Amino acid sequence: MTSQPPPPPPPAGDPSWSASGGQSAGADAGPRAGARIIDGILLAIVVAIISFVIIVPLILADSATGSTGMTSILGGGGLSGSALISSVIGLAINFGYYIGLDTTIGGTLGKKMLGMSVKGAAGGNPTVEESFKRNAWLLLSIIPFIGGLLQLGAAIYILVTISNDPANVGWHDRFAGGTRVVKG
User: How far apart are CA 183 and CA 127, in angstroms?
Assistant: First the structure.
């Protein structure tokens, strides 16, 4: 009996093919959600500390001098200006975290802790553009009043699309041009 030759390798850039020559298993929605929760907790702590260090002195300076300083210029004064500054700081830190870690080490600390990594369309770490696109839904948080709800809706939609896809690929991975979160 003759053996069949192995199938040809997939086209270059196929995100489902690992560098070791085998199929990479896509990470399930549950562990991916767990990684986002871990990352969210870490980011909330960092954003709170940095916001506190920047905003409290601004509020104290405004109240001590009776002026309408930086917090007023950026949002109407007092706590509303502080909330705007905190939101901008939080968004910058979030994007820096996700894009920086995806492109340099192949995933966030939460993903690494749970044994996952992010692969770009070419098979290695995602590019800055790919990582920006796959995390673009985080920008919803800047919409006043409803941004947080829209962001929650997007996160739920992402989990649903991951769960309903046989390769565990979400719409944000497809939007990014074929990124993938894999085990290992």
Answer: 19
